[in-house]
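Review box. Two proteins, two foldings.
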Amino acid sequence: MTDLHFSVDDAIARMAAGEEIAVKAHRATRWFKWFVFLQAAFALAFTLSIDVATVPYWNAFALWLLATLSLWSTASLHRRSAPRNGLRNMGTAVATWFALYTLMFDPALQLVGASSPWWWVLAGVIAISPILACFSASSRK
């Protein structure tokens, strides 16, 4: 085994280089927070456009799909700088949101005849909560 001897100046320089690399790595992954925010905004807009603004489902779905595909294609270009398991977690969150909204909240609120827009806003916010959970640091490590 070799003995490594560093001078104090060399150790300080190496620590500074490590901190600089950490700052650059953090800066490179900033796009992911915008990715999560935009995906959540698209999902909430989809929910509210159908149930509050009464846009036909397939028109709203086509717009949501187009926006989501463009967002995910941009994310795939930057996947090397994505947090570990970040895109996988986002994919799971988007699938969970879609299932929550289309299979649970929308039929349930229509069944009870909820006509107030505030019920739909509440259902939309609750449904996008899996996407918003990707903001937490534990989902990005």
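Next protein.
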Amino acid sequence: MTVLYSRAQVRNAITKGLTMAAAEAQVPSSDDRFTWARAAAMTLLEKPGAPWAEVKNWHYKASPATPPSDDDTPLFTRDQVSQAVTNGVDLAAEHNGRSCPDDLDNFMVNASLTLLDDPDADFYQVVAECYGERPSVVRSWL
């Protein structure tokens, strides 16, 4: 049986994942690396392969007063979410002047996907599920 996730679940997991990454790295979650990664991931979730111009449109659009009518409808597989988040982080890194994603970007991906499956997960759970290292080692990479 394939589990499907709603746009709202995905958006919340990404937001919590980047917030966790920012807190652990002691970087503001409003930093461009996070806001652009979120915009890219959400854009690519809806339209894989979307050009950067569409990511910019998503990033700069005003938040709608009410979410789309299908915001809570399960539509996306975990694989679709994983691809969107991974490709979104890669795309944001490229457009933020970094030649490739770094450890903080990778943690953001892992945290977002862990939080998708377990919305109450914390840093220690992300580390336990995604890394073969102690939390202090992972934290030192960020």
